[in-house]
């Protein structure tokens, strides 16, 4: 089971994009393949893998036989693609809020939003941010 979420078409080249079919439960996608960071025009969908997986021990056998990929490293993505080609992989279309902490702005947004939610820091941090914003005017 993989986590996935729809992204804007122009963002597909930043993610592993799932090729698959919706099941009767519209939140589940039967995964046929995944394309790692495709060009916009080559993306099979706008459904991005979120990097959250629940996988069976079978993946370790596959990894043992996986040749190094990008950067000379064995990639989990390659093993997951083999599992998808074997036909028993599903992705859950996550509908909640997701933070892309793989880029600097996304990391900052997540940090600010989580800090604001904290009971012990939120009120003081909100006041601090308010003063910062006022200073920008």
TrEMBL record:
UniProt domain Nucleotidyl transferase: residue ranges: 5-114
SUPFAM superfamilies: Nucleotide-diphospho-sugar transferases
EC number, as in UniProt: 2.7.7.9
GO biological process: UDP-alpha-D-glucose metabolic process
InterPro entries in the cross-refs: GalU_uridylyltTrfase_bac/arc, NTP_transferase_dom, Nucleotide-diphossugar_trans
Keyword Nuclease set for record: no
GO molecular function: UTP:glucose-1-phosphate uridylyltransferase activity
Enzyme class, spelled out: transferase
Pfam families listed in its UniProt record: NTP_transferase (PF00483)
Reactions catalysed, as given in the entry: alpha-D-glucose 1-phosphate + UTP + H(+) = UDP-alpha-D-glucose + diphosphate
Keywords: Nucleotidyltransferase, Transferase
PANTHER family: UTP--GLUCOSE-1-PHOSPHATE URIDYLYLTRANSFERASE
Similarity annotation: Belongs to the UDPGP type 2 family.
Protein name (Swiss-Prot/TrEMBL): UTP--glucose-1-phosphate uridylyltransferase
């Amino acid at each position: 089971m993989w986590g996935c979420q729809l992204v804007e078409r122009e963002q597909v080249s930043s993610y592993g994009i799932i090729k698959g079919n919706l099941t009767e439960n519209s939140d589940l996608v039967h995964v046929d393949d995944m394309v790692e960071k495709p060009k916009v025009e080559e993306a099979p969908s706008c459904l991005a893998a979120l990097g959250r997986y629940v996988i069976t021990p079978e993946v370790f056998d596959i990894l043992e036989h996986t040749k190094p990929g990008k950067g000379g490293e064995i990639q989990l993505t390659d093993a997951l693609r083999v599992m998808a080609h074997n036909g028993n992989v599903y992705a859950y279309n996550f509908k909640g809020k997701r933070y892309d902490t793989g880029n600097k702005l996304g990391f900052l947004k997540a940090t600010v939003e989580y800090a604001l939610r904290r009971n012990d820091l939120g009120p003081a941090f909100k006041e601090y941010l308010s003063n910062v914003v006022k200073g920008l005017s």
